[in-house]
From TrEMBL:
Alphabetically ordered keywords of this record: Cell membrane, Membrane, Transmembrane, Transmembrane helix
Database matches in InterPro entries: Poly_Biosynth_Transport (IPR050833), Polysacc_synth (IPR002797)
GO CC annotation terms, alphabetical: plasma membrane
Protein's name in the database: Uncharacterized protein
Superkingdom to which the source organism belongs: Archaea
Organism: Candidatus Iainarchaeum sp
Record carries keyword Transmembrane helix: yes
Amino acid sequence: MKDFSIIVKGAGITFIGFLASKVFGYIYSILLARTLGPELLGIFSIALGVLGFSIMFANLGLPYAISRYIAFYRSKGEEEKVKGTLVSGILINIVSSAFFATLLYLSADFIGITIYNQPLLADILRIFAFIVPLGTIVTSLLLAMEGFKKIKYKIYIRNFIENISKIVLYGAFFLLGFTLMGAALSLLLSYAISLIISFYFVQKKVYPFVRTKVKADYDFRKLFNFSWPLLAASFFAFMLTSIDSFMLGYFIDTASVGVYSVAETIARLQLLAYNSLVVLFLPIVTGYFALGKKQEMKQAFQLITRWIFSLSLPPLLFFFIFAPQIIVAFYGQEYASGFMALSILALGFFVIAAVGPTQSMLRAVGKTKYDLINTVIAGTTNIALNWILIPVYGIVGAATATAASYALWNLLSLVEVFFETGMHPYNLNYVKSIAAGIIATAPLFIVSGLFNFDSLPLLVGLGLAYMALYLLILLLLKGFEKEDFELLLLFEKKIGIQLGFLNSFVERFI
């Protein structure tokens, strides 16, 4: 379990940042939904998608190349190439982002009016055009921080400063009477703030590349050779994650996009445990693979996947039963029609949790070609399914297409892991988690028929009680092993919070 201390330490830092970003993100999404309404929220969601698409192309995959080569050259002590990598990457991104910002500004009317018949969308896109260079350069600076192993600064900026500024600025604009335009301007200003602070942290805390006397050694070709496959993969990943909203707005209307975006935002809570625990799994299994420790690889794969599965199952079951109440309590009655989409999307995201860190396993054994292959297959499938299902079933069709595509994406990687390594993450303890979920869910069916859980405090209280009951039943079923207890002790050590009573309680059932 020594190696798992690395997982817990890294996951602990990232978990705090991820949790904070989720909290701020949901506050922001609720604020937008409550003040804009479905139609304007749909317009804003489509504009966000176009912005993300523009920034994706503008960065050319270079931020990841910057991160990779900074770490690579620093390990070899080649400071000239470290500076050359950072400066050249940013210079290229300045030029590319200016080009795509201009392209977005000039095509705003075509997208907003010709395609979606929404003049307001065109106005928002013209504002978002100014965000393209800001977002592109910020991404490069943040990924550079990763290359210098200063991830805490990235978390400060992306998860805290950027999110808080969006909320505060939009609140101020709303009080001044601006709604949709206020949302767009607040986003523009928050990116400007992020850029200023990112530059400050890189220059003052990470690497003073502007005034340093080190002569830069540029290698543009190496950066491009590394980054262009990442851009291709990013394109198909974008087709997987965002094409549903674009096509829903085209085939149905922007109000449907607003309702759908609420359902998807809630459903992504399924990925909380996954994103928190997977973060440093790759270096651990890579080390095991390099040393030929296949049994340790398998144990790590099974342990992390089982934790993710066990923590993701209760939210899925809770969403199935209380989807309408959850949407109404948090976002309002006008979004209630998205309850079926919420349930379907939650199931699709749960497949990611149930399969576990299969993509990390493939990268660990050097089979990265599967990343691009799977993304192309899933992204193409998502486009086809959305094209077929949305005109007939609306937001339910979009949810079905996206959930099926995510499931396909992850099941493919599970099969590939087994084909390449002979490993899978499953054992009999999963049966105990499923049994605990079924037993704990039974009372929910009873109380759901007796009370109307449309009150937010009541719904949250019920959710917490349900999770506690599930974990208690899992303990009684001996669903935890010695390795789980050791992982809990490491978590206590890393976060600095005493969990003595919890540790003693859990230890009795192992």
